[in-house]
Amino acid sequence: MKLEMFHLCPYRDLPEDFREKNRSVWVDPPRHLFDAEIANRTYNQTLDELKYGAEMGYDGICVNEHHQNAYGLMPSPNLMASVMSRETKDVAIIVMGNSIALYDPPIRVAEEFAMLDCISGGRLVAGFPVGSAMDTAFGYGSNPSQLREKYAEAEELILRAWEEDEVFSFDGKYTQLRYVNIWPRPLQNPRPPIWVPGAGSIETWNTCVEKGHLYAYLSYSGYKRGKTVMDGFWKVANAAGIDNPYHAGFLQLVCIADSEQELQDKYAAHTEYFFNKMLHIYAGFADPPGYRTVDTIKAGLMAQTTSFGSAGSGEQTFDELRAAGNVVAGTPKQVTEQLESIIKDLRIGHLMLLNQYGSIPHELAKENIRRTAQEVVPNLRHIWSEYEDHWWPQNAIVREPASK
Amino acid sequence: MNERSVDVRNGEFQVDVLEGDSGDPLLFLHGVAGLEWTPFLERLSANHTVIAPRTPGFGESTGSEKLHDIHDLVMFYLDLLDELELDHLPLVGHSLGGMFAAELAAVQPGRFTHTVLASPFGLWDDASPVVDLFAISLEELAAAMYADAESDAAVAIATAPQARMTEVDPDTEEGQATIHYLVERAKSMSTAAKYLWPIPNRGLSKRLHRVTQPTLIIWGESDGIIPASYASQFASAIPNATAQLISNAAHMVIEEQPDQVVQLIEGLLSK
């Protein structure tokens, strides 16, 4: 079992009445709410927290890409990953990832990921998300009904740019290049492992199974929705003869304290900030026409972004969020037990944990990171030891489980 | 009215075509709301054989995946007109179909005797932006499409199944009906997005000077999708055009005031 620390780099200082006064945290939140002095602090604290997660014993650290929002301030996660490639020496650097359909030409992603892999010494995980509707369709103006086709073409181009031995020409519908010859190429041979963050669309399951990419379900909708989606993935995977849990990953918010009172005092308000402000997304930005394919609609599945949208549809309390499994909160022992059952139920070999989320301030984030990494993570690593992880960077550390 | 399916480019496209049957042919291109035989078309067909194709991506017309951009779309329509052997006829387009009509009239001005553009897309004015059709709520959409928000047509839009945030049970009849509606809406809106996303400007302003036939621009005064100020922009870019604003009408002007619009069209055609 591998456990990685995920960081969204959220804007932690939205006003108390943000939800009442604004329709969306994404695409069109008022510009005057952004304070660059606060961002200066936020970026540096985020980098410190990522480094701290690595030092405290996580297997990897994860960053991701979002645009025009207060939910996650990393339009370029590669910049953060670049710093971390220098600041850490052994953990996996998991960029989760670059929305490859948005780059023109997409070999920009092939180049930057290759740079990161070379700088980090072969520790990069290359994440290829389709990207949320807010980021892609509205933030970057990409026609949602052409996004998946662009994505597929970009993926083909990037993989060929990494793997082919000779300079080649690429005559695509969206990208035409007379000479493809990226310098550098990745240090990992032939390329870094590819993880695909998804949110429950059928096409992503099929792609991951067909191409052997790791499928990671990133949502905040809790265990029940997670179970439905991961069962869907495993049904497709099992039909193809695949049962290795390392083929799949999941994301979970976690907070740790020694007593109920301490949990309430330390984490209730910050957890509510995350669900009630960070996921406050105008419905019109979450599911534009064509973003969901006809097949996904026909299957009666919710929008990809419903993992954001429905979670943010009404105000929720800390206790409700815990009951629904949106956040796993408790003592180290309780959290370990809950995570173990999630890991086994969803059959996932990679669990990404958010220790800083919402408005959790720096010192408390560090406490949560330290306690999770030291009192929970080592006691989960033994799971799935009978399987081999084919989705781990060639030169990233493989830590030993805690001795029983 | 009768409906038939027309084969274009050796079966690459199967296109539904609705046809009325009295008089000389007239080509009608429908808008973002899709194509039905409405009172407007019924009245127009009193004096003309109205030929109304359904654009691929809408309803049962196929081949949408072969159309990537406005250039592909124009070539498709020229092939369809060749297949139907249509030449020297008036062209009427509404909304998205108005944009297509303007493109066709610019490419082959000699093919069309007159052009009518009713609330067409195709231009962009920073000072008066076209609404974001793809992000507004269904209630906002209804109010933007119809001057009378209480009308049956407006209420039908406002109360349609939500295309987003919906969890549907495919095992029930109601669920299946909702899925059918959402699939059709996703198909037609994705088709419209090819020509309108993220800004409905594909360079038409560079071509409008080629629309040389007598042209009528019709606009609903309270159009909440494309502001009526665009009427004069079209009229001044097209050499032989006049603009007519219609009161008590919005984006669906041809359906909201069919008698008045048909009368204006007949007036143009008699010239």
Largest binding interface between chains: A-B, 30 and 31 residues
The profile of the biggest β sheet of chain B is:
8 strands, mixed
Task: Report the portion of residues of chain A in β strands.
Answer: 5-15%
- Range of strand content of chain B: 15-25%
Oligomer: heterodimer
How far is the N terminus from the C terminus of chain A?
16 Å
CATH class division of chain A: Alpha Beta
Count of distinct strands of chain A: 11
Report the biggest beta sheet of chain A as strand number plus sense, adding barrel if it closes.
8 strands, parallel, barrel
Pick out the low-confidence regions of chain B.
Answer: none
Structural class of chain B: alpha/beta
CATH architecture of chain A: Alpha-Beta Barrel
Strand order of the largest sheet of chain A: 1-2-3-4-7-8-9-11
> Which sequence of SSEs, written as H and E, runs from N to C of chain A?
EHHEHEHEHHEEEHEHEHHHHHEHEH
C-alpha-based Rg of chain A, rounded: 20 Å
What shape does the CA trace of chain A take?
Answer: globular
Percent of residues in helices of chain A comes to 40-55%
Could you tell me how far the N terminus lies from the C terminus of chain B, measured between alpha carbons in angstroms?
27 Å
Provide the CATH topology of chain A. TIM Barrel
Mean pLDDT of chain B: 94
Shape of chain B: globular
Description of the molecule:
- The complex is a heterodimer of chains A (404) and B (271).
- With 404 residues, chain A is of the alpha/beta class.
- Chain A has one domain: TIM Barrel, CATH 3.20.20.
- In chain A, helix 2 packs parallel to helix 15 and helix 7 packs across helix 8.
- Chain B is of the alpha/beta class and 271 residues long.
- Chain B has one domain: Rossmann fold, CATH 3.40.50.
- Chain B is 35% helix and 18% strand.
- Chain B is built from 9 helices and 8 strands.
- Chain B has an 8-stranded mixed β-sheet with strand order 1-2-4-3-5-6-7-8, with helices on both faces.
- In chain B, a hairpin with a 4-residue loop joins strand 1 and strand 2.
- In chain B, helix 2 crosses helix 3 and helix 4 runs antiparallel to helix 5.
- Chain B is globular, with a radius of gyration of 18 Å.
- Chain B starts with a strand and ends with a helix.
- Classes of the chains: A alpha/beta (404), B alpha/beta (271).
